[in-house]
Each structure stands twice: as structure tokens, then as C-alpha cells.
Design brief:
This protein is an alpha/beta fold. The chain has 19 helices and 23 strands. The strands form six sheets. Strands 1, 2, 5, 6, 7, 8, 9, 19, 20 and 21 form a ten-stranded mixed beta sheet that branches. A four-stranded antiparallel beta sheet has the order 12-13-15-14, with helices on one face. A three-stranded mixed beta sheet has the order 16-11-17. Strand 12 (354-356) and strand 13 (363-367) form a beta hairpin. The longest helix has 29 residues, at 226-254.
Length: 559
């Protein structure tokens, strides 16, 4: 097998949405993306539930839904405790596209794809992405590639070091611009270094920008400041123009000898308020507070307004940036905050029936089940009734601003998933009636309100529809695609590389976007590849590295 007409270049724009890209493309400001769309197939693409970075990219590269690859969220309950832990690449329990390419002898270049840390062996080059601990030198395969990167691109960083806070949009944008430029240099270096068959790079900068600065480009956002927009709106949009140029350079390196895919893991849109689910659980008597004097005092202070978000806002108003950043779950600060603020350590778990961890577009509730949770309070015989009771209470929750029901959909996990890891999913998922209300899913109690205006650190959240563009010799020209999902990408990637598709993947090959003549001459091939899948049949792994918490918090991935 040789690289050539069946080469594939996949470029990911994390969180990219046609709501932003299409107007820019129509104005001629994204000429590369417009050319790929006009000469290929494109359309909005449905992501997985929940529409998070971890589960969505994992589904993109495997063709499996979360219940079959094992990543439902970045944040999980740590084993044998109620502490928070973070999943990483070791948590992905299925082969990725690049593993299949390597199985058939193809060289790969994988750069900055989320959920690839710690680095695993590939037939080629790999540079890890989001969830790589800050300062780690173990971020490449082969290991010596890290030294090569440090000498070739000395200021290369996987994610920005600075984070956005009010009044510092210019600094944040400058940092994103610098990170992006270094990634451009590294991309050109690595793509030109080997005769690859498959190459994939994900640019997370789009998602970082949108989480932090959506209000700058959205005049209807409650946090929109015309003066801030006058100064920085064009700088925000310029990041998309720069990415278009980077995409153009990558396509040029392909040399017309293969196919290109441009994809996002989910979309994005404005965020106005947060729903604090654990506060609701306490209000309904589902979650109980410990009776000890320390916990009771912390809870009383919590109800009186001593909360992390109120302290954060007070310090923010004083413009004490260094102190403010020190309060935002920085390394070591998290445990300190648990000592002074009401938290899960103050919950009476033996009398608590449910808790929330998952958040974002969809909320997730876990039953505190005996035999599964360390201090489970719900008997297995009462599991279904508990879920039904929770669902009924959620459906009765009202939005005080509008008087209408706050929750539009409540679903049990088996209504979404059927895979082998379904037992790790939240027991219930629920969806607010408007995506401008996000579900606060961290395990700590950030606010004492049920509904809270978002802080100045975040103004957007994920949406269910992302971006899909494909262009190549066997792809139809100028076709707008309906009904594409992230699960369908891996089968398409493998077909475009003339490789077999694993039997049993959840996604389907979208033959309607492929040239009929090409399909007739080369029908898709399917293969078992049982050993590759058996290698992923292991227990969930996780990391609780504080530097990961810091980066996710600062970049908008943790509320």
C-alpha cells in the first residue's frame, strides 16, 4: 500500500459552527473552506449526547457511540470515592482510525487530537492534544519527537497558557494567535517529514475563543459590550481567517493526491445562564447535608452567599487578576477551597439519592446506588422508581424568568445507548428548553442559586450541530449533506483511504455523498479486526492531574 490518491488529510476545528463559518465564507473571507465546500460535499453534522469534546472526538475517530468506546464525558467520579477525576486517552477503549491505518501498513501523522494523552504507539508520528498535563515532556510518539519539536518550534504549546478574563480580551487573543502560529509551523514540519497515508490535526483554538468571547461578536448576548466589540470583534474573526490560511497550506501539501475532510466535534452558541443541578437536588430533599458542625457551618455560609462564584466576582471587580486566577481551581487551590466552601465533602451520602456530575448542553444525573457508589443509599430494587421520580421532578421544574417548564426532555441512558459500557453513563440525561441555559456539571457547589447568570469567563457553550466538509476524487461536487453524524466519519475516512471498515461500528458509510461510478468500481469492504477491539476491553482509566483541571477550567471546559 502506498500513499497517493488514497491519502487522507483530516483537519478538525473544535466547536466550529456554520453559524459563523458560512457568513464569513460567503463574504470571501474563508477562501479555502469555500473552495472545499464548492468542490465537495458539506453540511451540518449531528454530534453525540452529550456534545462534549471527549465523547465527540472519541466517536469521530472510532465510529462508535460513547457506550461502545467508553468516554461519556471528560469529568467522571473517581473510583471508590465521590471525588472528581478526568479521563484521558487511556480511557478510550476502542481502536482509532490511525490504528487501523497502521494495521494495514500505512504511515500516520496525528497532531493535537483530544484524548490522545498519554501517547500510544502508532505507525508514524503522534503529538498529543487536549488533556496533556501542563509541562509534560511525554507528549509524543516516538518519545524523541518531543526533543525535535522543542528545537524546531521552541515556543510550541498544546493549549494557551493565558486564559480570558474580563478586560483582558486582547491578551487572550494574542496568546491564541501565537499558539496557532506555532501549530502552523509544526504542522508543516511534520506533514513534510514522512510519506504518510493518513494525517489528522485538531485546532482547539476555535472552541477556546467561542467559550470566552462569543459575547464580543454577538450583539444580542447580555454581556455584549459595544466598546469591547469595537476593539476586538475583528480580532476574534481574524483567528478564523488565519485558520483558513493554515488549512490552505495543509491542502497544498497534499498536492491533489488524496482527499480532505474538515470537521468539528460539535457546534457552538450563546450561553446566558447556568442551572445548578446539585442545588436543585438539595432543595428537593434528594441530596442531604452532613450533620457535623463544620459541614452545617459551611452550608449556612453557602446559603448566605459565601460561594466561589461570588468571591470570584468580587475579586474580579477589584481587578486583582492574579488573586482571581488563584481562586479559579489552580493547582493546590482546589483542596484549599474545599476546606472553606461547601462541597461534596459536606454531603451526607448515606442519605442522598442522586447527584449530578455531567453538565453542558445536557445535564446528567446519577442515582446513588448501593453496590455501585461507595456510600449508595438507593436499593437496586428501587432504582427504576428513583429514576422515574427524578424525571417527574425535573419535568416540573419552572424557569422563574418565563414561567415555562425549564426542562424540555428527560431520557434514560438506555434510550440513547445500547453498548457494552452503558453502565458508566449517567442514569438520566435532561435537556433545558433553550440552549442558552447550560447545566453546571462540576461536582462542587459554585453558586447558591438554582439559576445563575454566567460569569465573565464564559459566554458560549456547545451545540448539537457541527461542521462537515469532504473533498476528493470520489466525493460528489457541490453537494449539501443532510443527516450526517459524527459516527459516520470513521467509515468514510477508511473508505476514502481504500481500507476495510470494521464490522460492527455504529456509524454508516454515507454512500450518497460518493461518486456512483467510484462506488461501483470499489464497493466498501468490511472486516472483523477482532484483535484490535479486544485490546480495548479493559477497565476505565483516569487521571486526576491538577494541571489538567487548571487548563480545562481556564479554557471553558469546566464551568
Amino acid at each position: 500500500m502506498s500513499a497517493g490518491g488514497d491519502r487522507l488529510l483530516v483537519l478538525g476545528l473544535d466547536g466550529a459552527t456554520f453559524d459563523l463559518l458560512l457568513p464569513l465564507a460567503e463574504k470571501g473571507e474563508l477562501p479555502t473552506i469555500k473552495k472545499l465546500m464548492d468542490g465537495g460535499a458539506w453540511g451540518r453534522m449531528r454530534t453525540v449526547i452529550p456534545p462534549g469534546t471527549g465523547p465527540a472526538w472519541s466517536s469521530i475517530v472510532t465510529g462508535l457511540d460513547p457506550s461502545n468506546h467508553g468516554v461519556f464525558d471528560i469529568i467522571v467520579r473517581a473510583a471508590d470515592s465521590y471525588n472528581l477525576a478526568f479521563l484521558n486517552g487511556a480511557s478510550l477503549r476502542a481502536p482509532a482510525v490511525w490504528d487501523i491505518v497502521g494495521r494495514f501498513g500505512g504511515k500516520v501523522v496525528v497532531i493535537n487530537v483530544p484524548m490522545t494523552y498519554p501517547p500510544r504507539q502508532v505507525n508514524g508520528l503522534l503529538v498529543t492534544g487536549l488533556l496533556t498535563p501542563l509541562g509534560s515532556r511525554r507528549f509524543t510518539h516516538p518519545p524523541e519527537l518531543a526533543g525535535e519539536i522543542e528545537s524546531t518550534v521552541p515556543s510550541y504549546r498544546i493549549v494557551p497558557q493565558k486564559v480570558y478574563s474580563a478586560g483582558r480580551a486582547g491578551e487572550f487573543i494574542a496568546e491564541v494567535r501565537e499558539v496557532l502560529e506555532n501549530k502552523r509551523v509544526l504542522m508543516k514540519h511534520l506533514l513534510g517529514r514522512t510519506d504518510w497515508k493518513f494525517a489528522m490535526e485538531v485546532f482547539s483554538e476555535t472552541d477556546f475563543l467561542q467559550h470566552a468571547l462569543w459575547h464580543v461578536i454577538d450583539e444580542r448576548h447580555p454581556r455584549h459590550d459595544p466598546e469591547e466589540a469595537r476593539r476586538f470583534a475583528d480580532d476574534v474573526l481574524d483567528i478564523y481567517r488565519r485558520l483558513d490560511g493554515i488549512i490552505g497550506e495543509a491542502v497544498e501539501m497534499l498536492g491533489g493526491e488524496g482527499s480532505v475532510m474538515l470537521v468539528s466535534d460539535h457546534g457552538a452558541g450563546p450561553l446566558h445562564r447556568f442551572l445548578h443541578t446539585n442545588n436543585w437536588l438539595i432543595r428537593e430533599g434528594i441530596m442531604k447535608v452532613r450533620r457535623g458542625p463544620a459541614s452545617r457551618l459551611k452550608f449556612a455560609l453557602f446559603k448566605a452567599g459565601l460561594t466561589p462564584i461570588n468571591v470570584y466576582r468580587a475579586v474580579s471587580r477589584l481587578r486583582l487578576g492574579g488573586i482571581k486566577m488563584g481562586l479559579r481551581w489552580t493547582s493546590g487551590g482546589y483542596n484549599l477551597l474545599r476546606k472553606f466552601f461547601f462541597s461534596f465533602s459536606d454531603v451526607d451520602w448515606e442519605n442522598t439519592r442522586a447527584y449530578a456530575l455531567s453538565g453542558g448542553v445536557y445535564g446528567g444525573l446519577f442515582v446513588n446506588l448501593k453496590g455501585r457508589e461507595p456510600l449508595g443509599a438507593v436499593e437496586p430494587a428501587d432504582y427504576e422508581k428513583t429514576r422515574d421520580d427524578l424525571a417527574e421532578l425535573l419535568r416540573g421544574l419552572e424557569d422563574p424568568k418565563t414561567g415555562r417548564g425549564l426542562i424540555s426532555e428527560v431520557v434514560k441512558r438506555e434510550e440513547i445507548y445500547r453498548g457494552r459500557f452503558i453502565g458508566e453513563a449517567p442514569d438520566l440525561y435532561f435537556l433545558p428548553y433553550t440552549p442558552t441555559v447550560g447545566v453546571f456539571g462540576d461536582f462542587e457547589f459554585s453558586s447558591n442559586n438554582l439559576l445563575e447568570e454566567v460569569s465573565d469567563a464564559i459566554s458560549a457553550q456547545h451545540r448539537m450541530d457541527g461542521v462537515f466538509v469532504a473533498n476528493g476524487p470520489v466525493v460528489k461536487k457541490g453537494v449539501e449533506v443532510d443527516g450526517m453524524t459524527v459516527l459516520d466519519l470513521a467509515p468514510l475516512m477508511l473508505y476514502l483511504m481504500n481500507l476495510p471498515i470494521p464490522e460492527g461500528v455504529d456509524g454508516r458509510l454515507r454512500k450518497d455523498i460518493l461518486d456512483e461510478g467510484a462506488l461501483a468500481g470499489r464497493p466498501p469492504e468490511y472486516a472483523k479486526m477482532k484483535d484490535l477491539y479486544d485490546a480495548g476491553d479493559r477497565a476505565r482509566d483516569s487521571t486526576e492531574d491538577e494541571s489538567i483541571r487548571d487548563r480545562l477550567k481556564g479554557l471553558g471546559y469546566i464551568s
